[in-house]
Amino acid sequence: MYGYQGKVLDVNLTTGRIETLPLDEKTCRDFVGGSGIAARLFFARAGKRVGALDPLGPGNPLIFMTGPLVGTPVPSTGRMTASARSPLTGIWGESSVGGFFGAELKFAGYDGIILEGQAPRPVYLEIADDQVRLVPAEDWWGKDAYETIDGLAGRFPGVEGDGTDREAVDGSAAGEPSAAAKRKPQIIAIGPAGENLVPYAAIVHNKGHVLGRTGMGAVMGGKRLKAIVVRGAGKVPVADEAAVKNLRHRLLEKMKNSILIEALHAFGTNSSMDLGSLSGDVPFKNWQLGAWEGYERINGASFSDKVLAGTRTCYGCPVACKREVEVKDGPFRMEKGPGPEYETVGTFGAMCLNDDVEAISKLNELCNRYGMDTISAGSTISFAIECFEDGLIKPEQTGGLTLRWGDPELLVELVHLIGKGEGFGKKLALGSRRLAAEIGPKAEEKLTTVKGLEAPMHDPRAGHGMGLAYATSIRGACHVSSLTMGVEQGAAMYPGLNLIETYAGMASAGKAEMVVKTQNLGMVISGAVIVCQLAGMVYDDADLVAALTAVTGLPWTLEELMECGDRIWNLKRLIGNLSGAGRQDDMLPMRLLTPTAEGGAAGSVPDMDLMLAEFYALREIGPDGRPSRSRLERLGLKEA
């Protein structure tokens, strides 16, 4: 097969057994890659007993998967996914990450890794081409993710470079990794939050790339797996090298002429803070406000002026949107290292009314070191501040801490408490839904979760399609598993699907059809192929078909890819159903359905009844929230 290595590592941590399983062409054709194939492998192992799986137990398969374009010259395709039953939500959980690990895993000869069981003592997995072993990791247990990554990398002295030479947008520098750089180990690791089984613990890759959402770090911690180290000297075969080269050149030209790519290169993902704040897309004060004048002090330009120390990129990506920051002195001093993404600036800045860019940079570093999702962590803290303000949380419960808005020192202290599992941090580590359940109904009115997952920093009151996408998202509130946000905001268009109009964000009629299409396409582009959703906004549907055809040699059509997306979505939905999720969970929380009095989306709320009725009809979802038997059979999911 072209584009695939045709095999997956199968590791049982309990027994130490390591095997290689074949990845057949039909599975690749039906589920493409990434979390699509992961869902197929997961269901094959868990079956209809998924609802009985302990997310932190040895029987919960943790599956890392790449896609067919990963490790090829096609730009901005260096991502991989991690999937399992989520300890935060109890349903299907998945995360994706950029960087270099996914490409290096392909170079080592594997499309993915399946991990089951629980090691009797902490270990890490070392992969060097066909040499794979489990190595004792007691010395690393208890250390933060940065210490672990640096320490393990130090076991391979004399190897320098980050795995690729960054190619400029104009194509002036080579993008292929050198032979020496390919031997540099690529590492993913958990920190103390994962070891302590914090339900929203993350997995950290090379410090600045994070598998953040749904608690995959806790799943890894439950298996006593501290890290995975991979080195590979191989390459990824492509079917038509000339076609891949031509496509690459065309996509680089599109990127070179894209205002969106220019903004990402200049300011990173936080380039959206200004426009988002004005349009009503950015939530403030735990989603209570639609506007806040402090946003100007935490926008992309402010970070560039005050703390920017450099830029980084992911494998094969010319954009270099990753920020490096440095705080040279003061209470938030930090050495040069990975900077915060937009979502982190939103949760620890806008949501907590904190306008200190140095503090936000430090908070990002602490979350990375402890290994925790900044969206769930920051959202849970802002939720707790509001509960404290309203008297639902008392000072005696916080250890004497006064929870208040706009206090950066408090935020730093709370993150330390969560990461260390101390004091009030133990309650914040539960996540906002579980903490609200302990406090009571009045606290639940302040929640911003869907299916237990804290919403990302894009307000569905400004984009009603995003409201439907959140409510029906497989893993809970999510802005990247579908392509709804880019289409609704006019940043991405797919002519082959007739998604070419600029949608009125604050309108609900007709949005269901758009959301179904963008979900199905998103299952392929963002979850299975896997193209970075940001740089990938320059891709249209024809580019995707051309890339897959050139790399795999299979004559893909857009209709076939949309059917794959439909198949993947429905299988994941069914896994959620078997875990207990139904129609009652396809909803937005009260806070996100309460209009704001100010800002670009003032007075607007999505009409969820209208959109859901249309959505269920299009999806053929029954009263129990499950896809119809006929739909599953048409998609080749009869066994489900």
Description:
The strands form 4 sheets. Strands 2-1-6-3-4-5 form a 6-stranded mixed beta sheet, with helices on both faces. A 6-stranded mixed beta sheet has the order 8-7-12-9-10-11. Strands 13-14-15 form a 3-stranded antiparallel beta sheet. The protein is globular and about 60 Å long. The chain folds into 3 domains: 7-231, Aldehyde Ferredoxin Oxidoreductase,  A, domain 1 (4-Layer Sandwich), CATH 3.60.9; 265-279 and 284-447, Aldehyde Ferredoxin Oxidoreductase Protein, subunit A, domain 2; 454-634, Aldehyde Ferredoxin Oxidoreductase Protein, subunit A, domain 3 (Orthogonal Bundle), CATH 1.10.599. It contains 25 helices and 17 strands. It is 38% helix and 13% strand. The chain has 640 residues and is of the alpha+beta class. Helix 19 packs across helix 21 (511-529).
